[in-house]
């Protein structure tokens, strides 16, 4: 018998002063049996950084044809494709062909090794942005993971603060590749 996904619920309040975006989202997040809570929280972080009324979670790990997050326009064309982790170059190049923008959020201690192997293979990916979340910060975010979460994310001048209750984590993403 196959294991089922674990469902996480989150009320995420976003105050993104850089984009002028202020909203509260009720998120339902399906955690694949092979997925860690750290990865779940990186997906929530990615949602907060790109939040819009049309952004939604894709099947991600469960389906090679869908990203972790995506935003489609009213014609069903993919405007934003977000991957979490360390996807292979073929998947990313395919995503770049299907979307106006592609963003990867890598995390964990092996991110440097992955990026050294991928960097030259992704030179032609003109719409790709790669961001690394330092492992100590992603592990701190993991501590916020629970089946029912109340989260706040504040973004100002490129700085990101995630909080839950009286705990706050500052996230300082490292941009490894810019589009263009």
UniProtKB/TrEMBL annotation:
PANTHER family, per the entry: SUCROSE PHOSPHORYLASE (PTHR38784:SF1)
InterPro entries named in the record: Restrct_endonuc-II-like, YaeQ, YaeQ_sf
Pfam families: YaeQ
Name of the featured protein: YaeQ family protein
Organism: Undibacterium luofuense
Lineage, highest ranks first: Bacteria, Pseudomonadati, Pseudomonadota, Betaproteobacteria, Burkholderiales
Domain of life: Bacteria
């Amino acid at each position: 018998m196959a294991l089922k996904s674990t469902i996480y619920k989150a009320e995420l309040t976003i105050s993104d002063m850089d984009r002028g975006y202020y909203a509260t989202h009720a998120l339902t997040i399906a955690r694949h049996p092979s997925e860690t809570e750290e990865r779940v929280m990186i997906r929530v972080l990615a949602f907060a950084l790109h939040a819009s009324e049309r952004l939604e979670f894709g099947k991600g790990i469960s389906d090679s044809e869908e990203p972790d997050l995506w935003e489609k326009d009213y014609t069903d064309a993919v405007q934003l494709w977000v991957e979490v982790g360390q996807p292979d170059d073929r998947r990313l190049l395919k995503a770049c062909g299907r979307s106006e923008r592609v963003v990867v959020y890598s995390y964990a201690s092996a991110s440097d090794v992955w990026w050294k192997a991928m960097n030259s293979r992704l030179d032609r990916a003109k719409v790709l942005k790669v961001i690394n979340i330092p492992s100590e910060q992603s592990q701190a975010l993991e501590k916020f993971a629970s089946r029912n979460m109340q989260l706040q994310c504040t973004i100002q001048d490129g700085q990101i603060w995630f909080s839950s209750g009286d705990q706050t984590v500052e996230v300082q993403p490292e941009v490894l590749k810019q589009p263009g």
